[in-house]
Design brief:
alpha/beta, Rossmann fold, 2 domains, six-stranded parallel β-sheet, disordered C terminus
Length: 347
């Protein structure tokens, strides 16, 4: 019998978890739009994704004590408000990092028809995702420019570069930072008109991190001025309502599915389940899917291309931009790129 003293809401699109906690708590599975102030008023815990904005508007009259987001990012959660209310917040760091790296290289291989060893790639943000991107790029013998001021400040070393170097040398710029608006290194609109004006090589721009990292209007202007080359956009300002002018200028456009691998979803769901069961002192449960192996250390071009083709989702989004959320929610989870036979680089 469920413990009626523990009341949970789980976002209905989180895979591999339905029914697993029903023996230990009273659980409701709701669509994001159904997770309202009224719905959460007498709820103890939430398991959510990015579409559920957890802020004072949602939580002010609630009894929520714990929020587990089955995502890497937490910018949909007002951390300061939750801290003031003593609401515990957990996320799933690194859960889909290999899938995002797979997306980065699958899209690069789709728009560059010659060996990439001659290319210089700038990786902005060397966290879980960026570190994998950098490692794989080095294995492809690309020149890698690493930009991460917080890590540089904390760790030192000479592997880091500045934005001026990126502006001069980068053929590809890929963003992998969280979205922040304060602190010493805010990332909101870090790619603005001034950033694009400095670029010298009309680089490929890839955003598979957060839409707000790039100033949309500045990117549109930069593309029309020839300051940037092909655009690969998975994360959009204002999504699911996206800028159709920017959409029309992209080489590849997808509905925030860069991290949508089966393995990534399994990891995220298990991390969120573990957080909830630990917090509410319930028995540990495991997702209804085999736990994935360790991510690939390095990959091959053939392995990446065989494992993922971004073009169907791009064509669908360009044809039906108003169906952003539907295309995203009905995306067929892919498998991550397999390990290459030879390993010749580390980061």
């Amino acid at each position: 019998m469920p413990n009626n003293n523990i009341r949970l809401i789980i976002e209905d699109k989180i895979p591999f978890v339905k029914g697993l906690l029903d023996s230990y708590a009273t659980v409701r599975y709701l669509k994001p739009e159904e997770i309202t102030p009224k719905a959460v008023r007498e709820v103890d815990g939430l398991m959510i994704r990015t579409r559920t904005e957890c802020n004072a508007e949602l939580l002010a009259k609630s009894e929520v004590k714990m929020i587990a987001t089955a995502t890497i990012g937490t910018d949909h959660i007002d951390a300061d408000y939750c801290a003031k209310r003593h609401i515990t917040v957990t996320n799933a760091p690194g859960c889909n990092a290999p899938a995002v790296a797979q997306y980065v290289f699958a899209t690069i291989f789709n728009i560059i028809n010659r060996p990439i060893t001659s290319y210089t790639i700038a990786v902005i943000g060397l966290g879980h995702v960026g570190s994998i991107v950098a490692r794989w790029a080095k294995a492809f013998d690309m020149k890698v420019l690493c930009y991460d001021p917080p890590r540089q400040e904390a760790e030192g070393g000479d592997e880091w570069c500045d934005l001026d170097t990126i502006a001069r040398e980068a053929d590809i710029i890929t963003f992998h930072t969280p979205l922040t608006s304060d602190g010493p290194y805010p990332t909101h609109h870090m790619a603005d008109a001034a950033f694009f004006a400095k670029l010298r090589r009309s680089p490929v721009i890839i955003n598979s991190a957060r839409g707000g990292i790039i100033d949309t209007e500045a990117l549109i202007a930069a593309k029309r001025a020839g300051q940037v080359g092909p655009l690969i956009i998975d994360c959009w300002e204002g999504e699911p309502v996206i800028n159709k002018e920017l959409l029309g200028l992209t080489a590849i456009a997808t509905p925030h599915i860069a991290g949508y691998s089966s393995e990534g979803k399994i990891r995220a769901s298990q991390i969120a389940l573990d957080a909830l069961t630990t917090f509410f002192m319930m028995p540990r449960v495991t997702v209804e899917a085999p736990l994935p192996p360790a991510p690939a250390v390095t990959v091959s071009m053939e392995g990446v291309l065989d494992s993922y083709d971004p073009l169907p989702e791009s064509e669908a989004l360009k044809a039906h931009p108003d169906d952003f959320e539907s295309i995203r929610n009905n995306y067929t989870l892919r498998h991550e790129a397999p390990q290459a036979k030879e390993v010749n680089a580390e980061f």
